[in-house]
Amino acid sequence: MPLIKNQNYVPSRWMFNGHLQTIVPAIWRRPSLLPFERERISTPDGDFLDLDWLRQGSSRLVIISHGLEGNSRRPYMQGMAKFFFERGWDVLSWNFRGCSGELNLQPYFYHSGASNDLSTVVEYAAPQYTLLSLVGFSLGGNMTLKYFGEPHPFQSKIHRGVAISVPLDLSSSCDKISKPENRIYSWRFLKSLKAKIVAKAANFPDQIPLEPLARVRDIKTFDDIYTGPMHGFRGAKDYYAKCSSLHFLRKINHKVLIMSAKNDPFLSPSCYPEKLGEELENVFMEFPEYGGHVGFSPAGWKGAFWSEIRAFEFINEVG
Fold it and tell me: Of the residues 222, 243, 264, which one is the last residue of a structural domain?
C-alpha cells in the first residue's frame, strides 16, 4: 500500500544519466556555510562521537546521518540541514566514528549496521525536545532503517524517518559498486578506507594486521578482512546478513520513507523491493526513474534539491 508511484522528479537535461546525476552534485555543489556548533559526547564503550548542531530554540529536532566515508559537512548533509533549519527545526548532523577529522579511540570505527551509535545520539538529544525525526543518506540510511527496526530507548519521541539512496541489500550493492563501470566510486571509497586502516594499525599494531591490505581490490574483500571481523562479525557474508536493512523493514513501527533513484549506480535490483512495499503498513517507498546516488539536484541548479523537499514534506506530515 505505501508504494508511492507518482514521482515527479525531473533532472537537468544535460545530466542525462545516473553517473552525472551522482558526480556533479557531489563535486560542484557549494552550499552556504552553516553556523554549526560542535559538541563531543562519550559512547558507552569509551569512545567519542562529534555532533554538529544548528539550534534556534525549536521543540523539534531532525538528526541527519551521512554516508560511507562522509561527514556532517558534505554538501548533501549541509543542504538537508539548511532546508530544515530555515523552516524552524533544530538540526543535529552527527559524524560516525573516525569521520569528524580525528581518529576515534577504539580499534574499530563504524559500519552500515552501527545503529547503537545512532541510538547513543538519539538518547543524548531526545530529552531536550518534544519531537524528533531522522534522515539518513546511503550507509546512514541503512543504519537509520535498521535502527527503526530494533527496540531502542526514546523511540516514542520519534515522529518519522527518511532514508535516501539506501543499499538495502548490502551484499548485492557491494557487487554492483564493484562492477567495472563503477570502479571510480569503489576506488575512492577504498582509498579512504585503506588510509584509515593504516592509521588504526599504527595505534593498534597487535590487533589490526596490515599484510592483507595489499590484496584488497574491492569493498567486499575489505569488509571480509577488516569491517566484519573488526566489528564482531565472522566476515563480509555474516556482516551483510545481519546489517542489511532489508531484513528489518517488516519490524518498523514508525512511518518511514525510502527514496532511491532507479538509475542509482550504487544500488542493486534488490534495493527496490516494490512487492514488499505494497505489503508494509509503515514503510513508504518512492523510486523515481532519475536522481543518481544522493543526487536529485534541481533542474535549473538553483534552489533546494528534490530530496530535501520530499524529506521535509514527508516528515512534516501529521500522523
Answer: 243
Predicted local confidence at residue 28, as pLDDT: 84
267 and 195 co-located in one domain: no
Q: Are both 183 and 80 inside the same structural domain?
A: no
Q: Which of 197, 228, 243 corresponds to the end of one domain? A: 243
Q: Are residues 56 and 114 in the same domain?
A: yes
Phi and psi for 132 in degrees, rounded to 5? -125, 150
Q: Are residues 224 and 251 in the same domain?
A: no
- Per residue in 100-132, pLDDT tens? 999 999 999 999 999 999 999 999 999 999 999
pLDDT confidence of residue 15 = 86
Phi-psi region of 235 (alpha: psi -120 to 50; beta: other; left: phi over 0): left
> Which residues are part of the catalytic machinery?
138, 264, 293
Residues 6+ apart with CB under 8 A from 26: 75, 76, 294
Residues of the chain with pLDDT under 70: 1-2, 5-7, 319
User: Domain of 239?
Assistant: 170-243
Check residue 90 and give its pLDDT: 98
Residue 41 dihedral angles phi and psi, to the nearest 5°: -120, 155
pLDDT of residue 6: 59
Contacts of 77 (CB under 8 A, 6+ apart): 64, 66, 70, 71, 93, 137
Torsion of CA 189, 115, 75, 183, to 10 degrees: 20
The predicted pLDDT at position 302 comes to 80
